Amino acid sequence: MNPAFRKKIKRNDRIAYWVITLGGMAIICSVILILILIAKVSLPLFFSPDAELHASTRIENAGQILAVGMDEYQETGYTIDVNGEVRFFNIVDGSELDRSQLSSKAAEQKLIKVDSYGRLNHVLLWQDGTLTIEQVVFKPFFDEANDNVRSIDHQLVQVAEFAAPLVTPLQSLARADDEGRQVRVDLYPGNRLQLQLVESTENFFGEEEMTEAEHQLEVKFSGNISALVLSSNGQQLYAGSDLGELCRWDLSDTEEPVLLETFAAFRDKRAISSLNLVFGDVSLAVGDASGQVSTWFPVRNAAGVRVLTRIHDLSKHSGAVKALSPSPQDKSVISYSADGLRIDHMTSERFLLALGENDKLKTYAMTTRGNAIIGLSEDGRLLSWTLDIPHPEISFSTLFGKVWYEGYDEPTYAWQSSAATDDYEPKLSLAPLIFGTLKGTFYAMLFAVPLAIFGAIYTSQFARPRLRELIKPAVEVMAAIPTVIIGFLAALWLAPLIERSLGSMFLSLILVPAALMVSIALWQAARKIEPLKQVERGFEFLAIAPITIIAVAIAAALGPGLENWLFAGDLKQWLFTEMGTRYDPRNCIIIAFAMGFAVIPIIFTIAEDSLSNVPSSLKAASLALGASRWQTVWRVILPSASPGIFAGTMIGFGRAVGETMIVLMATGNTAIMDLSVFNGMRPLSANIAVEIPEAPVDGSLYRTLFLSAVILFVMTFIVNTVAEIVRQRLRAKYGRF
After folding, report:
1. Which of 154, 349, 382, 682 lies deepest, with the highest CB count within 10 Å?
2. Which stretches of 462-587 are DSSP H helices?
3. 3-class DSSP state for residue 448?
């Protein structure tokens, strides 16, 4: 050979070697970088919350201050003292900005207590028993005269005022809603609760009238009332006693308040020291004398009646819980005791932060955005902390375990990323999505694997070469059909067709195998006729195809009549009433056909190539020893080709796991955990496609969707790794074919 030509060949080989090596490394690096990217986005879900001291200033007359507050930008704070004076100041340096005087109808009255709720609403109990609700309003604006620098304007708005009662109460609560409904509750000695309701209504002439009503609330406590709380709309009242008892009233009916229940909350009769409602006013936070914080909400019992049930246990303080307050943005609960503040998230039961352990706080408040807390210590220091709690509702238990959500009768796996109101409880469990992924893949593989492998066996071992040249390219062309087309046809054509002929479909599952078995038995006798022997030499499908078609036609004809006879003409209703199973038109039957159709070409092609590449000498030796064609295939060909067949099956499995468009269009996208073939599901891939357009960037939902992508990646990686290990072992056992 010409040395120059040989040198050129070697040079080209080296170039090809490096090009292939660099290309392969680039692909591997790209895959690793993709994994790092999606893992980087999802990793902050599990970061620990943090708090940073924003400012600390001294304040005069700290002993007279009853309440503090701060705007959401952490620039302006305020205090309310016993003289009813509101002082606004700069958070950073403590310099005074403004003062406003609150007043009641009774002149020269002192404030006894301030109860804060909602968005900077303060219920003020004056010395003579007068009760007012004052709201502090911060309004940011941009001053054009000062280079559009942002400034914050503040003002005080009186929301409601209640006249002084004849006898000064021990404790008073009040709430007012946007519709003009005002509620006041007064506690007197002897567990006497006095309810005052004021409602604004329109008369016949469209004029606004005020309707007032007073009620004496019934209390069935053995001990004395130690804690009270009203819902923000004033329609629910809760009370706790010093003997661990709880009761609640429904105040929505102005004419007749209803006592819903009274029960012993704690068997050891420890005192209930504090009550408050969690954001949304569904769950009740309870703090007791032992320092335990727990949350309760109504759950339906065996009789169908909703009763308060202890659901979550949160922080444990070293002493009695003095106060509880909800976060205004999520289901977090702030508990206050002698050992400082503790912040927990109710749903995830995560302990988030501890603040002011050594500061001996006297009072505190959280901003309306939930991003900061201001507190007043006993030594007169005003402390403000900036909070960094990005994903309090996320934990391993909420992502992968059962959680008892508000309104549910038991713990469950649930995915619900949004709702009609802002105070809903996020449900971001990935368990039903992983289950849906595996369920859809299982039914698709159940349909695709037998057809693909048996088709590959027949095409490679039994069919004539000319027939093989037609079948294999036709099946491979199936892989080129866009999955969106398959999903579209499955959703709009196949699903209604199966729903209309459900009885016929089930009957065909019986008739088709039965017809094939009977035809095979008859063929064993008929095959002795010489002309018929030619049919089974590569043309068996000519006998099987008409039998299958006839069996399907008979099932289609007899199905409706059989459904009328056995199921009163409605098989779907019978499944629901007798079997407790709902029939979803877009269910796993549709997925089995649609996704199986998409997976078959991959498995068929790889399996057929593996079977065809088994050396013909092995087949000839088996036939020479007297084995039949099927015995040869079963005992010789299949074991030799098993590495390739298994690899094709696993690649098809990975293809089904990652499928998006078919399951997105052909399923009901319901995130439920039910093995029934008549129900739909929501797999991880479809969930990402559905949710990602509406997910706020860097929010909990956004990062959880990226975590879903990580899980999909890991699932396919594990499947492919296991497949490769098994394939190598099969290869070592049966030879390199």
Report:
1. 682
2. 465-478, 483-489, 495-500, 502-526, 530-533, 541-567, 571-579
3. helix
Q: Which two structure tokens, joined as six digits, stand for 453?
A: 């492998």
Q: What does the pLDDT read at residue 322?
A: 92
End-to-end CA distance of the chain: 33
How far, CA to CA in Å, does 591 sit from each of 287, 343, 573, 598, 638?
50, 45, 22, 10, 29
Distance CA 611, CA 646 (A): 12
**What's at 600, amino acid-wise?**
I
For residues 329 and 343, what is the distance between their CA atoms, to the nearest angstrom? 13
User: Contact 86/135 with Cβ under 8 angstroms?
Assistant: no
Residue with tokens 């021990």: 170
Q: Mean pLDDT by 10-residue block, N- to C-terminus, for the chain (737 residues)?
A: 78 87 89 89 91 87 87 89 89 86 67 88 88 88 70 85 84 85 90 87 63 85 91 91 92 85 90 93 93 93 89 91 91 92 93 88 90 89 90 91 91 85 84 92 91 89 82 86 89 88 84 84 71 62 78 84 80 80 85 90 90 83 81 85 86 87 84 86 90 88 92 87 79 63
CB of 295 within 8 A of CB of 284?
Answer: yes
CA atoms within 13 A on the CB side of 730: 18
403: enclosing H helix or E strand: none
Find tokens 């949350």 and name the residue: 295
The β-bridge relationship of strands 208-217 and 225-230 is unpaired
* pLDDT value, residue 737: 44
> Which helix (H) or strand (E) covers residue 377, if one does?
strand 372-377
Question: How is the chain split among helix, strand and coil, in percent rounded to 5?
Answer: 40, 30, 30
pTM: 0.86
Integer Rg of the chain from CA:
37
**pLDDT score for 538:** 60
Q: Residue 252 has what pLDDT?
A: 84
Residue 628 DSSP SS3: coil
Q: CB within 8 A of 553, min separation 6: which ones?
A: none
Question: From residue 19, how far is each of 110, 117, 513 by CA, in Å?
Answer: 86, 68, 53
Which pair of structure tokens corresponds to residue 289?
């004398």
pLDDT at 673: 87
Inter-axis angle of helices 502-526 and 541-567, nearest 10: 140
